[in-house]
Design brief:
By secondary structure, the chain is α+β, with helices and mostly antiparallel strands. It is built from 14 helices and eleven strands. It has three domains: 111 residues, Trigger factor ribosome-binding domain (Alpha-Beta Plaits, 2-Layer Sandwich), CATH 3.30.70; 87 residues, Chitinase A, domain 3 (Roll), CATH 3.10.50.40; 180 residues, Trigger factor, domain 2, CATH 1.10.3120.10.
C-alpha cells in the first residue's frame, strides 16, 4: 500500500492511497470467511462454504470485492494516516477513484487536521502560585493558637475589638413570616468568628456593653431576617505569658525557641508542598492563555466536550449517581452543564495547541529512544506487550497521536523548569524551593 499527503486550504489534507491487488486479495479472502459465518449455504455448515459459493450468494466477485473494500477501508485509511504522519481531527470524506472492480484500488480521503499555532512571550510567562515562604505573622498565629488553649477571660469596659468574647441577647424575625422567629439569651460569641449572620462581626466593632445593634442578614435557609442584638458584656481573652516554663508545661517542647523552630520547619514544608501541587496546573493554564480561544477548532472542542461528559457520567456511575441527580444537586439544566463542559473543553484544546507550539518552538520532539521508552511503560500499565501496543497504534492510525503525547510531556517538563513563579504579591519565588524534596511527615 502506498499513500501520499497533499496540503489543502482550511487545515485540510488530501490523502491519495493505492492498495495493490495482493493486499486487497487478503482482505477479500478474510471478508469471505467472515461472511461464511453469517450466510446459510445449503449443503455446508456455517463457516465452511467455499469462497466461490459466497461470491455467488452475494451476486458475483465484484459484489464480494465491494464488501471487502467497505470492510477494509477503515484499516486502509488508518495505515495511510500512520504512513504519512498526519494528525487528523475529524472524519474523512473518502472517494474511490479506481479499482472497484479490478486492479489496484485507489482512493482519496480529505480530512481536517490539527492546526499549527505560534505562541509568543512564552519564555516570560509568570505563574502565580501560593508562596512557599513562611511569614512571621503565620508563626505568631500558630503560637497564639496554642496560647489560647490556656487563656482566660476578663471583663473590659471598652469598645469591642476582634477576638473579644461578648455575651449577646439575640432576636431575629423573618419579615415574610416563612421562618420561625429566633430568640436566644446570654449567647457567648467570639467577634470575628463569622458564625451568626453577615455584618455582625464588622458592625459590632466599637460598640460597648449596654448598646444594641440592628441589621438585616441571612438566617436559616438563607432567608433574609431582621436581627436585633443586645450587648450584655464584653470580655477580653488574656493569653498566658510566653515563657520557656509555660511552653514546657503545655507542649512537647522545652523552650519557646525550640517550638518556634519546629513551627517554621513544619509550616515551610506544608507551604512548599502546596506550591508544588499548584505549580504544574497553574503553569499549564498560563501557557494555554497564549492561544486565543478562536483558534480552537470546533471539531476538537466538540470531541473534548463529549469526552468530558462521558468521563463525568462514568465518575457519577462509580458513585452510584445519575446525571439527573447531579443536575438536581448542582441546580443546573442539561444545557448549562454542557456549556460548562464546553468552556472547559475550549481551555483543554487551547492547552493542547499551546503545548504542541512549544514543542516546535523549542525543538522538543522526542527521540526514537524516548518514544520507545514511553511505549514500553504505557504497554506495561495496560498489561500488554510493547509490540501489541505498537501494532494497535498503527492499526488505529494513532502513531502520530502517541508521538505527540510524548512530545507534550517533554514540553510540560520544559515549561515547569523555565517558567517564572510568583506569589500573590507578584514577588518572584526561588525555583530551587519548588524542586526540594518534602517527603518528611507533616505533623502540624
Amino acid at each position: 500500500m502506498r499513500a501520499t499527503a497533499t496540503v489543502l486550504d482550511n487545515n485540510k489534507i488530501k490523502l491519495t492511497v493505492e492498495v495493490d491487488e495482493p493486499d486487497l486479495a487478503e482482505v477479500i479472502d478474510r471478508t469471505a470467511k467472515e461472511l461464511a459465518q453469517q450466510i446459510d449455504v445449503k449443503g455446508f455448515r456455517k463457516g465452511k462454504a467455499p469462497k466461490n459459493m459466497i461470491e455467488a450468494r452475494l451476486g458475483g466477485p465484484v459484489a464480494l470485492r465491494g464488501e471487502a473494500i467497505r470492510n477494509g477501508m477503515p484499516d486502509f485509511y488508518a495505515h495511510a494516516v500512520a504512513d504519512t504522519l498526519i494528525d487528523p481531527i475529524g472524519q474523512p470524506e473518502i472517494n474511490i477513484v479506481e479499482g472497484e472492480e479490478t486492479g489496484t484500488l485507489k482512493f482519496e480521503a480529505e480530512v481536517e487536521v490539527r492546526p499549527e499555532v505560534q505562541i509568543s512571550n512564552y519564555k516570560s510567562i509568570k505563574v502565580e502560585i501560593p508562596s512557599p515562604n513562611v511569614a512571621d505573622s503565620e508563626i505568631e498565629e500558630q503560637i497564639n493558637r496554642l496560647r489560647e488553649t490556656d487563656a482566660h477571660l476578663e471583663d473590659v469596659d471598652r469598645p469591642i475589638l476582634t477576638g473579644d468574647v461578648v455575651t449577646l441577647n439575640v432576636t431575629a424575625v423573618d419579615p415574610q413570616g416563612e421562618v420561625e422567629p429566633i430568640e436566644v439569651q446570654d449567647f457567648a460569641y467570639t467577634i470575628g468568628s463569622n458564625q451568626i449572620t453577615d455584618g455582625l462581626d464588622e458592625l459590632s466593632l466599637g460598640l460597648k456593653a449596654g448598646e444594641t445593634l440592628d441589621l438585616t442578614g441571612r438566617g436559616p435557609q438563607a432567608m433574609a431576617m431582621n436581627w436585633h442584638f443586645e450587648i450584655v458584656n464584653v470580655k477580653e481573652k488574656i493569653l498566658p505569658d510566653l515563657t520557656d516554663e509555660w511552653m514546657a508545661e503545655n507542649s512537647d517542647f522545652e523552650t519557646v525557641d525550640a517550638f518556634r523552630d519546629d513551627l517554621v520547619t513544619q509550616l515551610r514544608r506544608r507551604k512548599v508542598i502546596e506550591a508544588q501541587m499548584s505549580r504544574r496546573d497553574n503553569a499549564l493554564a498560563a501557557l494555554a492563555e497564549l492561544v486565543a480561544p478562536e483558534f480552537a477548532p470546533d471539531v476538537l472542542v466538540e470531541q473534548e466536550t463529549d469526552q468530558r461528559l462521558h468521563d463525568l457520567g462514568h465518575r457519577l456511575e462509580q458513585q452510584r449517581l445519575s446525571v439527573e441527580m447531579f443536575l438536581q444537586v448542582t441546580n443546573q439544566t442539561p444545557e448549562q452543564l454542557v456549556e460548562t463542559l464546553r468552556q472547559d473543553a475550549v481551555k483543554g484544546v487551547q492547552l493542547d495547541l499551546a503545548l504542541r507550539a512549544l514543542v516546535k518552538a523549542e525543538n522538543l520532539d522526542p527521540t526514537p529512544d524516548e518514544v520507545e521508552q514511553e511505549l514500553i511503560e504505557t504497554a506495561i500499565s495496560m498489561n500488554v506487550t510493547a509490540e501489541e501496543l505498537s501494532k494497535n497504534l498503527r492499526d488505529s492510525g494513532r502513531v502520530v497521536a502517541f508521538h505527540a503525547e510524548v512530545a507534550k510531556m517533554k514540553a510540560s517538563r520544559w515549561l515547569m523548569s523555565n517558567a517564572t513563579y510568583v506569589d500573590e504579591t507578584g514577588a518572584e519565588i526561588d525555583r530551587t524551593l519548588l524542586e526540594s524534596d518534602q517527603s518528611a511527615t507533616d505533623t502540624l
